[in-house]
Specification:
Elements (H helix, E strand, L loop, with lengths): L1 E5 L8 E5 L4 H11 L8 H8 L4 E7 L3 H12 L3 E7 L3 H10 L4 E3 L2 H5 L4 E4 L6 H8 L8 E4 L5 H13 L3 E2 L2 E3 L20 E6 L5 H13 L3 E6 H26 L14 H6 L7 H10 L1 H23 L3 H24 L1
Parallel strand pairs: 3-4, 3-6, 4-5, 6-7, 7-8, 10-11
Antiparallel strand pairs: 1-2, 9-10
Helix pairs in contact: 6-7, 9-12
Length: about 350
């Protein structure tokens, strides 16, 4: 008895089969036929379809850093029997297939969401409502839609009644993960490990839908925490949106062309670390600012007050007061860092 690996033209990858020694022609025909089906030796496929899974079908709409990472992690952790991805450009189909972010990659929205248990919107926020309207007629009753948007109030207000009217459910999500890279090539299977994901609730949110979404994010390696969309938007305006805008303002001001040409030569590691966020997608951040305007303005006002206090201390030329201000900042940062490490 010998092992033969065969790659029929219709298969994307080879499959190990058992071939009984005999005449070469029958042996080859048997191998081609058997290779069309999972076998006992095809352990990866066998484990995947027999393991306990959360979903029969997961659909990802928009395969960038977050969408691609969701696909990689969901497949690695066996959270769905099948992962489908919807992309906009024909060239993205081959790229996503090569990266392994989904089992099926398509340009057809109806095909992508057909029979899906959970659909994750991973597009810019401004396009999510339109996308939801487009896919709702093709969703099965009881299907759940969630998202990865950085703001929640507007989206929850629009999509919750829209989905309820179509016999589906919407549960807003915001994984606190990412970096300044974009596109499916930046996706990482461990992007969500040890992170927090906010799951937003309303009085009308279906309990089973919340349970499924919480289990999904936990399965990806994240820690889901529940809160209202309003509280979420106020908190992230301070800890996420404001830092990005400050990094952008710092980059604009320090690297302003009228400054001496040697200015940029003196910008070293500290400046690079402080302004890393400014390298993020302007389109994505334009949408974030537009959908969380009031809370961001409040955060900017709070920070302006803090800068005003610091300016007063410096103008007052009090070394003791300045040191105390810096010590308070250091203690706050150190305590937060210890708490984050403990988690």
């Amino acid at each position: 008895m010998i092992f033969v690996t065969v790659r029929p033209p219709s298969l994307a990858r080879p499959n190990w089969v058992w071939c009984v020694a005999g005449h070469p022609a029958p042996r080859q025909c048997d191998a081609v036929f058997l290779a069309r089906f999972p076998t006992l030796l095809d352990s990866q496929r066998l484990r995947r379809f027999n393991a306990r899974v959360l979903l029969d079908k997961l659909t990802i709409i928009g395969v960038g850093l977050l969408g691609g990472s969701i696909g990689l992690a969901a497949r690695a952790h066996g959270l769905a029997k099948s992962v489908s991805a919807l992309v906009r450009r024909p060239e993205s189909v081959a790229e996503c297939q090569a990266l392994g972010v989904a089992d099926e990659v398509t340009l057809d929205s109806a095909e992508a969401v057909a029979d899906a248990d959970l659909v994750v919107l991973c597009t810019p926020i401004s396009g999510m409502t339109g996308l939801a309207k487009r896919i709702l007629p093709h969703l099965k009753p009881g299907a759940i839609i969630t998202d990865v948007g950085s703001t929640k109030q507007q989206l929850v207000a629009k999509l919750t009644p829209l989905c309820t009217g179509a016999d589906t459910h919407f549960v807003g999500s915001h994984p606190m993960a990412g970096n300044d890279q974009t596109g499916p090539a930046a996706a990482r299977v461990d992007l969500f490990d040890g992170t927090v994901c906010v799951v937003t609730l309303t009085d009308d949110t279906h309990p089973e839908a919340i349970k499924t979404v919480n289990q999904f994010w936990a399965g990806l390696g994240s820690q889901p925490i529940e809160m209202t969309s309003g509280l979420h938007d106020r908190l992230v305006a301070r800890c996420s949106h404001l830092p990005h805008l400050l990094a952008s303002a710092l980059a604009r001001r320090v690297l302003d062309p009228p400054h001496d040409e040697q200015q940029s030569q003196l910008c070293a590691t500290g400046f690079r670390d402080m302004t890393r966020l400014a390298a993020g997608s302007p389109v994505m951040w334009r949408d974030i600012v537009g959908s969380n305007r009031d809370d961001i303005l409040s955060a900017i006002d709070e920070f302006a007050d803090e800068l005003g206090e610091l300016r007063g201390l410096i103008a007052g030329d009090s070394p003791e007061a300045i040191e105390a201000w810096l010590q308070q900042a250091k203690a706050a940062r150190d305590n937060w860092n210890k708490s984050a490490d403990a988690d």
